[in-house]
Structure formats: C-alpha cells, structure tokens
Sequence to fold (897 residues):
Amino acid sequence: MARRYDTVTFLSDYGRADEFVGVVHSVIRSLAPHVTVVDLTHDIAPYDTRGAGLLLARAAQYLSPGVVVAVVDPGVGTARRGVAVEVGDGASVLIGPDNGLLAPAVAMCGGADRAVELANPDYQLPAPGPTFAGRDVFAPAAAHLCAGVALEHLGPVIDPAGLLPGILPVSRVEGGVLEAEVLWVDRYGNAQLNVDPGELDEVFGAGEPVELVWAEGSRVAHRVQAFAEVEVGRVGVVTDSYGLAAVVLDRGSAAGELGLHAGTAVTLRPLPDGGGSSAPSAVTTSVHLSARSSRGGSA
Amino acid sequence: MARRYDTVTFLSDYGRADEFVGVVHSVIRSLAPHVTVVDLTHDIAPYDTRGAGLLLARAAQYLSPGVVVAVVDPGVGTARRGVAVEVGDGASVLIGPDNGLLAPAVAMCGGADRAVELANPDYQLPAPGPTFAGRDVFAPAAAHLCAGVALEHLGPVIDPAGLLPGILPVSRVEGGVLEAEVLWVDRYGNAQLNVDPGELDEVFGAGEPVELVWAEGSRVAHRVQAFAEVEVGRVGVVTDSYGLAAVVLDRGSAAGELGLHAGTAVTLRPLPDGGGSSAPSAVTTSVHLSARSSRGGSA
Amino acid sequence: MARRYDTVTFLSDYGRADEFVGVVHSVIRSLAPHVTVVDLTHDIAPYDTRGAGLLLARAAQYLSPGVVVAVVDPGVGTARRGVAVEVGDGASVLIGPDNGLLAPAVAMCGGADRAVELANPDYQLPAPGPTFAGRDVFAPAAAHLCAGVALEHLGPVIDPAGLLPGILPVSRVEGGVLEAEVLWVDRYGNAQLNVDPGELDEVFGAGEPVELVWAEGSRVAHRVQAFAEVEVGRVGVVTDSYGLAAVVLDRGSAAGELGLHAGTAVTLRPLPDGGGSSAPSAVTTSVHLSARSSRGGSA
Fold:
C-alpha cells in the first residue's frame, strides 16, 4: 500500500498524567512507523468539546497536511458515531467522535468532501472495554489511513450534511453597541472575543477606546498594538495572533483580573462621556480619554 | 553496528517544568539519531514507583517493540542498581532502577529473558553529580542499545530472579464479599479496581449491582456498559479499557465524589436488601433495585 | 538547498493547554519536514526570562547540535528585536527575542560567532496580529535554517556585543561566610545554589556541614552524596547533576519545607558551635555534629 500521509496531529482531553497519550502514539507507531505525531494539546478540560473545537479551528490553517485525531468524547461507548471526514480534496482527514468537535475545523478547511463512519472492525483494535476509543478506534483508523488504506474501507460512507454541527457564537451590533462573547482565555489570561477589530473601528471609530460591560462589571479598554503598550492599571484590546480582538493586560491576566471566562457575554459600547465614534478622534485620542476615565470606568 | 531498535518509550516522575525530559530526549538523539522517543508520561507523582509500575504494565501490550526507559528513582546515587531487562526473546529491553518499577511490565511481557547491571562506564555520560541517572546512565544505555551495542556490553549479566519484585495487590472473595483495592484513579476520576468484571458476575450475579464499602463510606454501584448509562446521582461500575472493573460517574469524578484514591481498600458486597446473586436476576433487575436503594446506600 | 540542521530544540513559556506549542511544531514540520523537534520545556512561568535563560544554560551542553528556539517574550509586538545567534562555529544557532533569554546559553557555548536580526519578511509567516512571534517569526526562521537558508538571509547582521546580556548572580566569600542565591527549585523541591561544592570545601572544610541563613530562617545542612543519605528531619547539601551545590531532603521538598524560591538570598556560614573548618574533621564529623545541632539550628 502507498504511504498516503506522514503526519498525525493529535488533540484530546486526556491530560498528560495517565498513559493515554503515549499509548495512542504507540498504537500509531506500531501500525505506521513512518508517521510523526504532532501533539496539539491534551489539556482540554475534560468533556469540553466546545473549547476543543475552537482550538482546532484556530490551529487548522497552520497544521501539516495529513490526519487529525481529535478526542473529547463524553459519549464514548454509546451510540455516538466515530467518523473520518476528508477535507481539502483529500489533503487532510479529520478523525474523532461525531459530537460537533470536528465541525469548526472542517468549516475552516472549506467543508467536508467525504465522510465515513468508523465501523469496520478490521481497522480497530480488539477492546477489553468500550471506554478508550482513542486507542482502539481513532488511532488505528489514522494509522491505517497513513499507511494507505482508502477512506471508504474504514466504514460506510455517510452524508457529511448529517454530521453534528458545532456552534460558533456570532457577535452582533444592536443600537450602537456590540454584543460579543469570550471565545477563549489563553495561558496568559488574554480573553479572545468573537469580534473582528475592523468591526470595532467601524462601530466605535478607528482606534477608539470602548467600554466593556459584562455581568459582574465594566471597564474602559484601550486599543493597542502590543501588550507592552497597555499602561499600568489599564485594560487593552489588541488584535491577537488569529486576527480577533482580545482583552489584555501588560504582563498580567486580563481574564483573571476582570473575571472573564470562555463563554462570558461581553457588551462593547462607546465611552459614556462622549468618546468613541461620535467624537473626532483627533481631539479625544485614546490616551487622552483613558487618562480621565479608566478609573471611573472600573468595576 | 546494526541499528537494533528504533523506538524508545520513556516514562518518569520528572514532570515537565524542568529540562529533565528534554535533556534525556537530547542525549538519546545525540547518540542514536535514528530513534523516535515516545513519551508515556512524566507526571508520575514524585517517587511513586507503585503507580509508575502499574501504568507501565497497563501500557505494555500497546507499546512499539524497542527500548523502554522508566525512571522513578528515589534511591538515585545509592547502591541500588541500574538494570536492563530483556523480554520477548529480545523484542524489547526495559531499562531503569532495580526498585520494583519494571517488575509488573516485565511480568506482562512474559518474564525476563536476560538482565544486566548498567555498570559499564563506557556507555554512560561523565556525571558532574550522581543525581540524574536518567541523563547519565539510562538514556545512554537505551541509545547505545538502539545503535546496536549488545546487552551484555552494558555491564555484568545478573540473574533476573534477583531483581526486586513489584507488588500487585490481589483481590479475594471471603464469605460472599470481595475484598479489593483501587489500583488507579485516572484523569476523569474513574477508579480502577483490581477486580475482573467476570468475578463480579460470578460472586454477585450477572450484571447485578453491588455495594461498595470503604473506610469513609459506602455506595450502591450499578453495572453499566458506558459512562453515559450512569444516571444522575448514581455510581456505576464499568468494564474499563484494560478489562478491569472501574467505579465511575457520568461526566464526573467518581474518585473525587467518593473520596477514593490509589490504594484505597474497597469491599464489594451484595446489596443489603436482598439484591445481588442471592435474588433471581429476572425479578430484581439492576434498574429496579437501584431506584429503591441508591439513596439509602449512600454514605 | 542543503539540509543544514535536522534538530530544533524548543523552549517556551507557552504552557501546554493552548495550541501554541503544537502550532510551532506544525509550522516547522510544514517548512522543513526532515526536522525532529525536541521540547525542552514549555512550563516556564509566564515572562520568566531569567528562569528560562538558566534552564537553557543548564541543558546546553547536552543538546543535539542544530537550532534552538527559545520564546519567553513579554515584549512581543514592540521594538525588541528577534535574533538568531550562531555558536560553536556554526554547530548551532539560537533563535529568540533579544531580551537576555539566550545570553547564558550563548556564553555556555563559547560566545556568539555571528548574529542577525530576524527582519526579512520573506522568511516569516504573514501575521494576522503581532502577538505570536513563535509561530510567525521564530519557527519559520528555524525551519528555513534547517532547510539550508543561510543565516545572513534572515536579516541584517548585527554585532553580537550589542545583544542584551543575561544576568547570572555570582556568589562571594566575605568574612568567612559565603553569600549565595537560589538559582532554581526543581520539581522535587531541590534548591540549586550558585555555589561550587569545591568552594564549600575550601571555605568550611572538606565535607563539613554548614549553616544556611536566609531571610525567614536558618538550618544546619549536612554534606551528602545522595538524597537517601539525608537523615529524617535533616537538610542535606548534595552536588547536583550540574555540578552545583543543592539544598535537599530525602524524598521531600527542601524548598517547600524551608521556604526557598528561585532568587532567595542564602548565606552559608560555619556552624555556630565550633563545627566547620575551624574544628578538626576527625573529631567532629558531620554525622556527630548534626546529631547535636540539627534541632538547635532549625528556624
């Protein structure tokens, strides 16, 4: 059989303390020794399919072509299907449970070309129990694909339209304010919003500060180019490495200080004292405004 | 020299925050560039040779043939020996301290064929201090084996019967109850027992619920096929991915909720109100019983 | 182009929970598929350039020749330069921000041969935002170097003497006492000092116990060869795996028990009751002394 892929990118909520990750690596290596496994992360919070789906979508455009194995699988052992979804005219195949986890990344890759249900036991390991599909179903499927097995041999072809969709929250402008949501809090405490920075410019004026309002508080946030531009005691909004607006501090955790979490609803609105898009930006620069209002705007 | 092995599987209590794991990878790569290192885990609790030995035994049958380096080594720098143990007619060699850590996996692999003490300084790194045998002794031994050095060149042959044995707790039936022990609590809080599910069927009746009793409490546990079959507020017993009985919740930590830890002694006995093997299973199904007794059986 | 290097050693404060590490691996693999990436650690405390620099210096002599990517980068997005520094007559190149992080390792490798600023956008990824230089600047530079791109093509040559230096604390003897500092606390709680054990012998007598004094307390510490030689309730000083003196317990965290941290100033002085270099070591052995004074010397 031809070697079809030589990279497996692997994502899970397995953590690192148990042997789960290493065993999946070992199974892949035993079946397809030519493959390099790249670990995306294994520290997804247990069962957090939403967070894992967003993470995979963020990473998708940077991954090496090949097979992706994504396992966050609270329904393991039940009737939920294991699937393999081909994207990019066969450039890559995404493998995992059909629970919405793969959907955002599939969308990022231009949608599914083909999909199969992983139902052929010839390409699975005999399982002492039903709870470790990563080892017994997903890793063998990935390795066999890499070794040249055709997608359709892994199980019956299914309609990609029937795959469980993921849910991506969309921001919306209403009455001059922007209703948004925290998509992700990273290691440094930066809180990514589902907001395009260009939209901030349009709604509030180019580079203008905005007021962030959430259930537990509110804060003025200043538009900056880099973390280090956020002055002490102030909150910044930066265009993050994925092109979205993120709430940040300089060398501190914005999410920790403000109490933001993945999923927190955040309203962005013009500053209460006439800043924002209604004021000429030449007069009320962000620095000027912030000097007067950053304390008053604090929660 | 012939390339004898091309995989090193690596397990330790080094954690990931220091450079220990990366330095071991680097030493192996410097001496044997053709080798791929597979990390099993490095988050074993410091000095926990028991937990590491059990983990390695669980993983053993899934590992790629080659060399295993296992380092949990509270006696580093003392007279405890470093050893290399060949198993499977030379298919694999396990390397580590002779402190019982390797014993369960060696047993899983059918016992030791040959063993040597890692005493030949020609296959070690010069050590500034005696405390990092993973870098100075075990990694070089693994790399040289992979590069084709014969086992017996690493040091004097020793009698495998003289290796320190590991201790595997065995469950026992006594007066209609099963005395067991928690072997392992995984990331999700599932508590693996040293109990074959078939033994549960024999002692308590096929698929019958049982009462779990431990020092701090007791709970009725229902036999299930998958986590998702455990009803809210109830405790399940599933056949886990290694074929042993595990105490579980659906999307929750059974160990956390019940206060179970690796090593906790657990007694399994028939339900107090006539359930279990003494009652006809057609009359008192597990669902029926559990509806009446799951609260009453709680701690 | 010739394949110039086949190993990238990678160190960061990215943590493992986000996709940062995996994305850097993926970018390198996409641009230079022949490369193996060795992770040194990614659990450096956020922004801790000092700790990362020391870690890299400790590891330097054990690394495979090739490219090192080190990213602890609080100034990302500002005018701080990204640099590539060649050492060892081209044996290795260290890549990262010019913030002192690389300096200790460069010194360990004999100093910089050449250096360039990573300013050529042809060897960078187009960045949606400026905050992920590891992905957009450092990883591509490393991969292109591995693939054979010449160092000077990555950007303008700069004077290595102008690179930001790292700061390595130096111990000093003053009035018969040794003023030292904790360089590093490892996973096991061993506290490495910036002290050569030979210096202890010279100042206090060969193998003699010393009194450790720090802001919050003091303790007698006994010179030992291995952790297991430290008696219960006592503190030991061992020659650690990098040849420096480290404060240790047997199977316990010395740093945790004593309240030592990276950066803690520690004074080492002779025992108050006539121990140390002024007493004949044949009469007051370390064991003898410790039996009388370890309690009295406790904080």
